[in-house]
Design goal:
- The structure holds 2 protein chains of 2 kinds.
- Chain A is built from 20 helices and 2 strands.
- Chain A is mainly α.
- Chain A has a two-stranded antiparallel ribbon.
- Chain B is an all-alpha fold.
- Chain B has one domain: Helix Hairpins (Orthogonal Bundle).
- The termini of chain B are far apart.
- The chains are: A mainly alpha, B mainly alpha.
- The interface between A and B is large, with 42 and 40 residues.
Chain lengths: 493, 128
């Protein structure tokens, strides 16, 4: 088990080094990247089975005591989210290999190794048991994302990259200040010790820390009103990179909030957070309706959907937290798959702009199906995974009589369907506008891209199929988070 | 807690934040470095009063300064150093591309804002 936890972090880092060393051998480089990502994903699946059976497992890195050293904690929450995240990255990398021969591809010499580093950061962020290592994991993710976002160095990327980099640098600085505050107040950065000590602080200090980290993690998660950097920067990157960003990066922020604010008992912030959640859902979806480019519409939906997870968290009940966890599991693959389909649209139509495409359903029915399933799922139409996840979150809110937020969630759901219908009408139905077309991608690459997307669509259907089991596991994970005694006991035996 | 250190943190943060709101990337780089210094001082302050260097056998443990925040600080310094270099590279790239290092507006945003204020003939599909 110790080996599995380490493997999820170390394997991608080793793969990054190997693929950099093999940069002049395309085949060796790809094998290194796929082996690193694949073994990490495999390790995380075995980890889930083991943790679900035996309970939380911890690794004290270097054998230090929890007060001093770095500790990795694979509790059920981490073990549930990690396989979803790592599998998505693996599938996206397969798509990227297929996309390589087109003009929209990322530079494989850089994107492969950087994706591996990002994966290591994601694993570390999910598994870490202390606040400072979480900061380091965030930096690992962000630094590789900065380079991935701007590595082609064209004008729109540099422009968008500046906003993204400066915004996230500010958030990281606030994070460090937060670590300093927490250390001053409690004398530790270990989460299990913090879960004991923070609830005993005076109310003002405790809520100050809670609100500070709400801003820090909220900026990463792109909640209202801290979201403006996201729709600006995401669409400029190559599709595969946007798919990973949209599927994972904001979710790491939500994940950190679910863990931190539940363990530290920040229930008092609930009402304000619910209001923020309602605004995030509605403002995000309204932003999406105004856009006329597939990638930009999807970027605004990232924000809107974050609102649902934030809403589940803000209820501070077991049902609400479980709903948020289930929503995370549903949302990560669905969002990544929609961006991959965005890449396919770009590939077939020569652009992701709604004005310049049309009638794709007749020419590529498979692409139409692969768009329709995750799009309906995103809007929360039964029997897809989005329905189950939304039902869990909304029914938890109804239990708490959160009328405003429930209405906001339902309105946002309707408007999501509307904007998905807009993409459908403009891209898959209707007529194609005249204009110059780039040459389509070679057959072989296209087949790989379709296969990877189909695999990811199948993944989203699996979430719907096993929704009952996943909800049970999410509820168990939520119970552990809501009563931190088990977490504390696991870290300090 | 030391008032001079608190003043230093406050001053560095204020100047850093002011520079960060600028449009010129070179000012943002300086602002970010100042903010980085502020966080370093804050972390060190969090470790309690200064003492002897925390080297085993050098002094009695109760007379030493707290080594943990120092370890955190070192990590933070390395990260902020790397990021400052990346920002500089970005500023240079922007200068090559556009002749200055100013952060530009989002063109797509401008276009949609223009649609909101009154549809033009080229934008009819957006307005529907």
């Amino acid at each position: 088990m110790t080996g599995l936890i380490s493997l999820a972090i170390v394997a991608p880092l080793v793969a990054a080094a190997c693929s950099l060393a093999l940069r002049s051998h395309p085949l060796g480089r790809d094998i290194a990247v796929l082996a690193g990502l694949g073994s990490a994903a495999l390790a995380s699946h075995i980890m889930l089975v083991t943790v679900a059976r035996d309970g939380t497992h911890t690794v004290a890195v270097g054998g230090w005591a929890p007060e001093l050293g770095i500790i990795l904690v694979a509790d059920l929450f981490a073990a549930l989210i990690l396989p979803v995240a790592l599998t998505i990255i693996f599938v996206v990398e397969i798509f990227a290999i297929g996309q390589r021969r087109t003009v929209w591809a990322a530079n494989p010499e850089l994107s492969g190794p950087l994706l591996c580093v990002l994966t290591a950061g994601v694993s570390l962020a999910f598994l870490t048991g202390d606040l400072f290592t979480l900061f380091v994991a965030f930096e690992l993710i962000l630094v590789s994302s900065y380079v991935l976002l701007t590595h082609q160095g064209n004008r729109s990327q540099v422009r968008a990259g500046m906003t993204y980099v400066v915004m996230n640098l500010l958030a990281s600085t606030l994070f460090l200040f937060g670590v300093a505050f927490v250390y001053t107040a409690t004398g530790t950065v270990n989460m299990a010790l913090l879960a004991e000590r923070i609830p005993q602080l005076e109310t003002g200090v405790r809520l100050g820390i809670g609100a500070w980290f709400l801003v820090v993690f909220g900026t990463k998660a792109a909640v209202f009103p801290l979201f403006s950097w996201l729709p600006d920067s995401y669409p400029t990157a190559p599709t595969t990179i946007t798919a990973v960003f949209a599927g994972l990066l904001t979710k790491v922020g939500i994940y950190s909030m679910i863990r931190f604010h539940n363990l530290m008992g920040m229930e008092d912030l609930g009402p304000i957070m619910l209001l923020v959640a309602a605004l995030t859902m509605v403002v995000g979806v309204l932003g999406a309706l105004a856009q006329s480019d597939v990638k930009r519409i999807l970027s605004f939906h990232v924000i809107s959907q974050i609102g649902y997870m934030f809403m589940g968290l803000s209820l501070f009940t077991v049902a609400g937290t479980a709903g948020a966890i289930l929503f995370l599991i549903h949302h990560m693959p669905v969002k990544a798959v929609l961006f991959l389909v965005g890449g396919l649209i770009e590939n077939h139509e020569g652009s992701s702009s709604l004005d310049r495409s049309g009638g794709l359903a007749a020419r590529e029915p498979l692409v139409a199906v692969m768009f329709a399933i995750p799009a309906l799922s995103l809007a929360g139409i039964p029997p897809f995974s989005g329905f189950v996840a939304k039902l869990a979150v909304v029914s938890a809110a109804i239990d708490q009589r959160g009328t405003v937020v429930v209405v906001a969630a339902l309105v946002a759901g309707g408007l999501t369907l509307l904007s998905m219908a807009k993409i459908w009408n403009e891209v898959f139905w209707g007529r194609r506008a005249d204009g110059p077309r780039p040459s389509p991608a070679p057959r072989r690459g296209r087949r790989t891209m379709h296969a990877a997307t189909a695999l990811a669509v199948a993944g989203t259907l699996m979430v719907a199929l096993f929704a009952g089991t996943l909800l049970d596991l999410s509820t168990e994970a939520a119970e552990n988070l809501r009563s931190p005694a088990s977490y504390i006991a696991a870290v300090r035996p | 807690m030391n008032a001079a250190l608190l003043l230093a943190i406050g001053g560095l943060t204020a100047v850093g934040l002011y520079l960060l709101t600028s449009r010129s990337l070179s000012r943002i780089v300086i602002g970010y470095s100042l903010l980085g210094h502020a966080t370093v001082v804050a972390l060190i302050t969090a470790g309690g009063p200064a003492g002897w260097p925390p080297i085993a056998g050098g002094a009695a443990p109760e007379d030493m300064s707290n080594p943990l925040p120092q370890a955190l600080t070192l990590t933070a310094i390395v990260i902020s150093f790397g990021l400052t270099l990346f920002l500089l590279a970005l500023a240079r790239r922007q200068r090559t591309l556009s002749g200055d290092d100013l952060v530009e507006d989002d063109l797509e945003d401008r276009r949609i804002a223009a649609v909101e204020s009154g549809p033009t003939e080229t934008e009819d599909s957006v307005a529907t």
